[in-house]
Design a protein that fits this description.
394 residues; Growth Hormone, Chain: A; mainly alpha
C-alpha cells in the first residue's frame, strides 16, 4: 500500500478507536461504578446497551448529513458532544443519570465514527478498499486490547470517573489531530439531505438483497461479539473469579486473534474475493459458537475450555467486518456515508439488543451469553448465504 493509504488508515483508525475505548475502558471498573450508582452489576452493564443504542441513532441521523455537508464538520461536531458528555458522566450519582449521559455520549460518538468507512470509500474501492479497511482495523483493534488495561490503571490511580476524564481528553486529541491532518474527502455533488431523499436512500439500501446480506453478516456477527463483551465483567470477575488486574489480560487475548485474522485477510485478498473471505470467517465463528454451547451444556466450562473458543469467535471479526463493509459500500459509491450509517445503525442496534438479552438474566450462568452468541452467528451465516448471491461479488 502507498504511504498515503497508510496515513489515511492511521487517521481513520484513530477516529474509529473512539468507540471501542468508550465501550471497553470502563469494563474493569464496572463493579465499582455499580456500587457508586446503587445498582447491580447486571443492571449497570445495561449502560453498554444504552451506549450502542445512542451510537446507532447517531450514525443513522448524521450519516446522510455527512454526505451533504462533508465529513469534517459532522466529525468534529460529534467529538464536541462526546467530550462534554464524557465530563458530565463523571458527576453521575444514579443509574438513570449514567444511562442518560451514556446515550448522549454515544450520539456524539456515532456522528464521529460513521465517517470512518465513508472516508475510506471516498478514496479507495474494491479489494484496495478492503485492504485499507483491514490495515485500519488492525490499528483500531489495538484499542480493545489497550482500553481495559488503561481503565484498570486509571481505576487504580483514582476511581472510575478518571476513565471518563481520559475519554474526554482522547476526544480533544482527536479534534486537534483530525482537524489539522485530515482533508475533506467527500466527493462533489453529494446527495441532498432532505428528509424525503434520506428516506429514499435508506429504502434503496434496504431493498438491495445483497446489501442486506452484508448488513446481516456484519450486524449479527457483531451482536455475538457484543454478547461476550457485555457478559465478560460478570463471566470473568464473578463467575470465574478473576481479579480486575487479570481481567484486561484475559479479555485482551481476543484482540490478538482479531489482529491476526486481519493480517490473514489482507494476504487472502491477493487471490480471494471479499465475499469468499467473509463466508470463511462466518463459518469459523459458527463452529466456535457450537463449541461454546457444547462446553456449557456438558458442564465442561472453565477458563481453559472457554477462553480459546471465545478467542476464535471474537477473532473472526477480523475476517468478517472489513469484507462485509467493503462489499456493502461498493454497491453505493454515491452515498457511502448513508449506506455506512444504515449498516452501523443496524449493527449497533443488534449489539444493544444482544447486551439486553445477556444482562436481563441475573443468574450465575454462562447460558445467556452463549445462547445469544450462537443465535447471532446462526443468523449471520443464514443472512449471507440466503441474501448475498454469488453475483459480481463472488
Amino acid at each position: 500500500m502507498t504511504l498515503s493509504a497508510r496515513r489515511l488508515a492511521l487517521l481513520v483508525a484513530a477516529n474509529t478507536a473512539l468507540a471501542p475505548f468508550a465501550i471497553d475502558a470502563y469494563l474493569p471498573a464496572m463493579a465499582a461504578l455499580a456500587d457508586d450508582v446503587g445498582a447491580s452489576i447486571h443492571h449497570t452493564e445495561l449502560s453498554l446497551s444504552t451506549f450502542l443504542a445512542g451510537f446507532a441513532l447517531g450514525q443513522l441521523v448524521f450519516g446522510p448529513i455527512s454526505d451533504r455537508v462533508g465529513r469534517k464538520p459532522v466529525l468534529l461536531g460529534g467529538l464536541v458532544v462526546f467530550l462534554l458528555a464524557s465530563l458530565a458522566i463523571t458527576t453521575v450519582g444514579s443509574l438513570g443519570e449514567l444511562l442518560a449521559w451514556r446515550f448522549v455520549q454515544a450520539l456524539g460518538g456515532g456522528a464521529t465514527v460513521v465517517n470512518s468507512a465513508a472516508i475510506v470509500r471516498d478514496c479507495f474501492k474494491g479489494s484496495e478498499a478492503a485492504k485499507v479497511m483491514s490495515t485500519m482495523a488492525i490499528i483500531m483493534l489495538m484499542a480493545p486490547l489497550v482500553a481495559p488495561v488503561v481503565g484498570s490503571g486509571l481505576l487504580y490511580l483514582a476511581d472510575w470517573w478518571l476513565i471518563f476524564v481520559f475519554l474526554a481528553a482522547y476526544a480533544g486529541f482527536l479534534m486537534w489531530l483530525l482537524g489539522t491532518k485530515l482533508p475533506e474527502t467527500r466527493p462533489p455533488g453529494g446527495s441532498a439531505a432532505t428528509l424525503v431523499t434520506v428516506l429514499a436512500n435508506y429504502l434503496s439500501v434496504l431493498r438491495d438483497r445483497n446489501a442486506m446480506g452484508f448488513i446481516a453478516a456484519a450486524s449479527m456477527s457483531f451482536a455475538g461479539l457484543f454478547a461476550f463483551v457485555t457478559a465478560s465483567p460478570f463471566l470473568y470477575l464473578e463467575h470465574f473469579g478473576l481479579t480486575p488486574s487479570l481481567y484486561p489480560l484475559v479479555f485482551g487475548v481476543n484482540v490478538v486473534v482479531m489482529v491476526a485474522a486481519n493480517r490473514l485477510n489482507i494476504r487472502l485478498l491477493r487471490w480471494r474475493t471479499p465475499l469468499q473471505n467473509l463466508r470463511l470467517g462466518l463459518g469459523i465463528q459458527l463452529t466456535a459458537g457450537l463449541g461454546l454451547t457444547f462446553m456449557v451444556a456438558t458442564g465442561l466450562e472453565s477458563l481453559v475450555t472457554m477462553v480459546p473458543l471465545i478467542m476464535l469467535f471474537a477473532g473472526t471479526i477480523g475476517l468478517v467486518a472489513p469484507n462485509a463493509i467493503t462489499s456493502l459500500l461498493d454497491r453505493f459509491p454515491h452515498m457511502s456515508a448513508t449506506a455506512a450509517a444504515l449498516q452501523g445503525s443496524i449493527q449497533f442496534s443488534c449489539g444493544a439488543l444482544a447486551g439486553v438479552l445477556v444482562g436481563a438474566f441475573e443468574i450465575d450462568s454462562a447460558w445467556p451469553m452463549v445462547g445469544t452468541m450462537l443465535g447471532a452467528t446462526l443468523l449471520a451465516n443464514l443472512g449471507i448465504r440466503l441474501l448475498a448471491g454469488r453475483g459480481d461479488h463472488a
